[in-house]
Design brief:
about 110 residues; mainly alpha; elongated
Length: about 110
């Protein structure tokens, strides 16, 4: 997982609207090319390491481009990849496990 902590909502508890909005907002601060690569190619069930590796492989010169970045920019790149992937996972969970309670059937 490259030292990134799991988001606080990663357990099976329901995510609040504020948490969901914050996660989606963070996604939109990432570089557009990073967002595009992850949105297009990465499944939400993949782990963070494989997502980062895939994005690095899609860079113009691959790992050389990443190595040439200053340490702070490289860290930001990793954080952007994870943020976009977490946002995609949150969106998937919001669609697949809606945040509403199933109505109870009326008693007969």
């Amino acid at each position: 997982m490259l030292g990134f902590a799991q988001p606080s909502w990663h357990s099976r508890r329901e995510m609040t609207d504020d948490e969901y909005d914050a996660i989606q907002e963070r996604k939109h601060t990432a570089h557009p090319i990073v967002r595009q690569i992850i949105d297009r190619d990465c499944h939400v069930a993949e782990n963070n390491r494989s997502v980062i590796r895939h994005v690095v492989s899609k860079l113009r010169d691959g790992y050389k481009t990443l190595r040439d970045l200053p340490r702070a920019e490289r860290r930001r790149f990793f954080e952007d990849c994870v943020a976009v992937h977490v946002a995609n996972r949150a969106e998937y969970e919001a669609v697949m496990w809606p945040r509403y309670k199933t109505p109870t059937p009326p008693e007969l």
